[in-house]
Amino acid sequence: MTTAERNRRQVIDCLEAFATWAPESYEQYLADEPQVRVAHEVHSGREALRGLAAAGARLFPEGVEVVVESTVAQGDQVGVELRVRGITTAGAQYENLHAVVFELDDGGRVTRAFDHSDTAHAVDALGLLAPDAPDADLAFDPVPRNVQTTIALFSAFLSWDPAQYERYLTDDPTYQGGRTVLTGREGFRSIAALGRHLYPNGLDWEFESIFGEEQRTFLRMVVRAVPNRGIPYENHYAMSFDFADDGRISSQREYTDTVYARERFDYPTGRLT
Fold first, then answer.
1. Cα–Cα distance, 247 to 115 (Å, whole number)
2. Between 40 and 217, where is the model more confident?
């Protein structure tokens, strides 16, 4: 049996085992620190996956039926198209289509899985909250959720468009840059307007590390750009983020070499909008 064929069999067995919601059935197919991305939410570690299974058991107490429609296996990756069917706690029949990509280690254990499905149908049929407003009870382990939200906020914020990033903020968030503290969404809008002024050609950024604990995340990153003064800019940043119970960001704190920044930016003299 080739490695690809072994991995294909392992993935199918893993799917069938996970559909029972029993860790003793499915964990034999997992690496020690597996990671699963479901839509935009990332769940890391066996405990997080046990939370996913526990939620599945609440939604489908009799388990679900997994019907594999097709598979593609090459090297350490397996792609699966499948149908998931089950009876909900309310007694309703549920069915959805999924495409899942698995990565496996040399021993044939799943290290990462990326699950793509009709999430709108799942939200409507199962009465879940939409991903933009994650529910603390359904998010299981808040740390990977919060890390993912941190990345999403940062990516959206660099559009400088409140319509893109405000979904990730509480109604009254706090921003702190150095010793400057701004409150409310209006404070974030003023920072976005400043960013648009300082970086007219956009910027490149690279996370050096990002991690979380309970309701806080922390990151290190490098920002590179040619800002409005025309002098190449490369600066190192550290940021921390606090989260409300609903998964939205309540505060952001930013630290960087402001002397270096001051030499390379042409700061505005008046209010920006």
1. 21
2. 217
